[in-house]
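Input record, target 12 of the design panel.
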């Protein structure tokens, strides 16, 4: 009967307490246009070149370089490899996916007025995948700290009366969990302590006192164990993409100007599973499982301004500005928990969907300066330098006390990061050979949290005349310290060395 009730009730909890942090903000503020094979073959060093649909995403003036209307389409095979260290454990995982990461068209309208120096106007529409979130890995090892500290740390920082965790007469566990989440005086942190208690991981110190509703001190049921085997599984999927409307023009075929209006969209799902076991015979809570499912959707807007100047026949200079992206984000969270001494009805908790209040995120703006030299029909060399102050990332409304603390944390932890991209192309009749290198500084002041990124690329293209086919291989490496939970009581982290490899195939043709 209880299961039937849940099936028809569709229990939702509108959770008033926010749970977003610096990691979430950075995930949606990072941008890496995956782009066409030609673009990736030069490691994205296209800010002063133009003449490529992905170049338009870096500098909107780039579409004005087209002499003819142009269409391109790109498929990419993305491969993640993660080497994960967690205390004495080591694991390697791989993830592969194929997707459409770029599609776009530019339409060139030549000015028939021969007396005007505004020689052409260009309208473009393009789709670009900004980030691919598909990734998974497993961390295993023996830790001296139990997951009990995740729950106890909350009780030590907040006075959570035991009476809040008790069930009212006739109340189910899942109903109490939902009520706590929807109560503006309690919310997410109280829910976590509720889970820890009913899973048998923690208990109030004065458990035997019948009038202990005001008790705010808690103890662990994993004690006196001091060694804990732990497994943490991370699996994510989704993407951050944008749709662009581009408008550009050319003045005297020496100055190119453009503007982009960008519509952004986020679709992100993350599942984490934590398992802990200890062999101490005096420990009550020996086997613990804690799972979280996060689902995120979002939309946003940004604009870009750009210019490319032809200094000489071969030398080109590019400048562009990316505005902040103003996101509107919705999130839902489902939690599940269990242990060898958990209440038998604890499994019903996973029927509750926590719906967080809609929040806004403002990512930082970006400035890019570019320089390129074209050696006639023989080839080119190109250089891009970008600057982005991640410390300006903001949750909104900024008047919210929780967001105020997180914005302060981002200002303290994040910094201005530069990106350098260098690429070259050698043309041998219809064949083009390409190579590139990129370096991205960590957005964190502490580079142990996330290291600098280094990457390289190789590419090959063949021009059939009005039709071109390109292929590129690029690879980037970066290391990080991934905190399992944003909690000072349980600060354990996994050390991850990540390698992302891509093979991209593009076709492009003139109309």
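The sequence produced for target 12 reads:
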């Amino acid at each position: 009967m209880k299961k039937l009730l849940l099936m028809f009730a569709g229990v939702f909890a509108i959770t008033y307490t926010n749970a977003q942090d610096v990691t979430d903000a950075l995930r949606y503020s990072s941008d890496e246009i995956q782009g066409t094979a030609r673009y990736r073959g030069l490691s994205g060093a296209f800010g002063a070149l133009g003449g490529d649909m992905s170049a338009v995403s870096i500098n909107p003036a780039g579409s004005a370089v087209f002499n003819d209307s142009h269409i391109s389409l790109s498929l990419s095979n993305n491969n993640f490899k993660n080497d994960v260290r967690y205390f004495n454990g080591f694991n390697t995982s791989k993830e592969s996916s194929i997707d459409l990461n770029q599609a776009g068209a530019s339409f060139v309208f030549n000015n028939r007025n021969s007396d005007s120096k505004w020689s052409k106007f260009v309208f473009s529409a393009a789709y670009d995948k900004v980030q691919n979130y598909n990734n998974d890995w497993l961390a295993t090892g023996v830790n001296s700290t139990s997951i009990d500290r995740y729950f106890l740390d909350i009780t030590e920082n907040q006075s959570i009366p035991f009476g809040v965790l008790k069930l009212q007469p006739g109340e189910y566990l899942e109903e109490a969990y939902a009520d706590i989440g929807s109560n503006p005086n309690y919310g997410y942190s109280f829910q976590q302590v509720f889970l820890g208690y009913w899973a048998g991981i923690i208990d109030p110190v004065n458990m035997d006192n019948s009038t202990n509703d005001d008790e705010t001190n808690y103890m662990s049921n994993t004690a006196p164990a001091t060694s804990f085997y732990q497994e943490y599984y991370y699996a994510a999927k989704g993407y951050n993409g944008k749709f662009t409307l581009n408008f550009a023009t050319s003045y005297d075929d020496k100055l190119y100007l453009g503007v982009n209006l960008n519509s952004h969209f986020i679709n992100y799902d993350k599942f984490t599973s934590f398992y802990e076991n200890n062999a101490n015979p005096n420990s009550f809570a020996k086997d613990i499982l804690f799972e979280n499912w996060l689902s995120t959707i979002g939309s946003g807007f940004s604009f870009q301004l750009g210019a490319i100047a032809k200094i000489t026949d071969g030398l080109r200079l590019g400048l562009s500005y990316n505005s902040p992206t103003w996101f509107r984000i919705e999130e839902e969270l489902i939690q599940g928990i269990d242990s060898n001494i958990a209440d038998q009805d604890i499994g019903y908790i996973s029927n509750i969907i926590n719906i967080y209040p809609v929040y806004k995120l403002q990512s930082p703006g970006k400035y890019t300066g570019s320089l390129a030299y074209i050696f006639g029909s023989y080839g080119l060399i190109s250089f891009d330098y970008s600057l982005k102050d991640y410390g300006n990332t903001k949750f909104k409304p900024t008047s919210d006390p929780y967001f105020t603390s997180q914005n302060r944390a981002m200002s303290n932890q994040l910094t201005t990061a530069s990106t350098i991209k260098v690429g070259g192309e050698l043309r041998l009749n219809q064949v083009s050979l390409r190579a590139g290198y990129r370096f991205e500084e960590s957005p964190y002041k502490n580079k142990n949290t996330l290291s600098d990124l280094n990457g390289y690329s190789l590419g090959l293209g063949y021009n059939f005349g009005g039709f071109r086919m390109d292929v590129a291989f690029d690879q980037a490496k970066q290391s990080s310290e991934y905190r399992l939970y944003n909690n000072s009581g349980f600060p354990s982290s996994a050390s991850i060395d990540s390698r992302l490899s891509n093979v991209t195939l593009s076709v492009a043709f003139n109309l």
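Residues 401-413 form the longest helix (13 residues).
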